[in-house]
Amino acid sequence: MDELQENGWMKNSDHARTLLLLTYHFPPSAAVAVYRMLGLACHLPRFGWNVVVVAPPGMPGEPVDPALLERLPAETLVQRVPFRRGFLGKVARRIAGNLAWAPAALAACRDIIARRSPDAVLTSGPPHCVHLLGMRLRRRYGIPWAADLRDPWFTNKTPLPWNHPLERLMERRMVRQADAVIANTPLSVRSFVAAYPDYAEKFESIPNGFEPVGLPPLAPQGV
After folding, report:
1. Is residue 16 very low, low, confident or very high in pLDDT (cuts 50, 70, 90)?
2. Which residues are bridge partners to 54 per DSSP?
3. Residue 160: per-residue pLDDT
4. Of 25, 142, 146, 220, most Cβ neighbours within 10 A?
5. Is the pLDDT of residue 4 over 60?
6. pLDDT of 36 above 50
7. How far, in Å, CA of 8 to CA of 21, rounded?
8. Are the beta carbons of 94 and 63 closer than 8 angstroms?
9. Which has the closest alpha carbon to 11: 21, 1, 24?
């Protein structure tokens, strides 16, 4: 987070700015993928940013912990966008997978942009198809966009034979169009810089942090 503050993304200001955050994983889901974006939403207000989250109500098979929602600042707005239901919804999920969520999420983002005029957009993957929404919003509205990769997409990953060309193409488009690309380790940043040297200035590393909230206090140690 300090790296983004230095580059001008997060500056303390008398006027709070708004971040539009798009992610598939957010409380009340308690999957491991949730905590990075939850921590970001909790800490951004002290840097002068309010957060508007667009996320599904939940993902199949993920554990649920409603208490995680209590950590969010009162000013955080969470817009739940469900997957399409019924027969057509099942067909869309079968054909497009998680990308079937994109049309409804895009409509929600357009409404939020009209009402809230966010100052920046952040997309978090996997699933990395969420970054396609960031590309669309960047082109349509010109809002600064950062793509956060909690895990590799193509670079630093051994892709499967049937999605190798598409993943490489989509990652290249993301790097070219995003204003910033955030990785969770310095090693990933070095790999990105090696793969895309012309865009080296876009890459930042924000390692996963440690949140002591909810953990029992340490027992006193004997002498």
Report:
1. confident
2. 22, 79
3. 56
4. 25
5. no
6. yes
7. 18
8. no
9. 1
Neighbours of 102 (CB within 10 A): 18
Tokens, residue 57: 């109500």
**d(C-alpha 70, C-alpha 134), whole Å:** 28
Long-range CB pairs of 167-172 (<8 Å, 24+ gap) are: 167/128, 170/128, 170/131, 170/132, 171/128, 172/196
Paired sense of beta strands 180-183 and 145-149, if any: parallel
Q: Tell me how crowded residue 217 is: count the other CB atoms within 10 A of its CB.
A: 6
DSSP 8: T
Angle (CA) 101-106-109 rounded to 5° is 125
What pTM was estimated for this model as a whole?
Answer: 0.84
Assess contact for 170 and 153: CB atoms under 8 A.
yes
Dihedral sign for Cα 169, 175, 176, 179, please.
positive
CA angle (139 as vertex; 138, 144 as ends), nearest 5: 25
pLDDT of residue 125: 93
Helices vs strands, H then E, count in the chain = 7, 7
Token representation of residue 60: 């199949």
- Would you state the structure tokens that stand for residue 200, as one six-digit string? 């080296």
The runs of H, that is alpha helices, within 62-163 are 86-96, 102-116, 130-141
User: Quick check: 144 and 106 in contact, CB under 8 A?
Assistant: no
d(CA 164, CA 28): 33
Residue 173 token pair? 């488009």
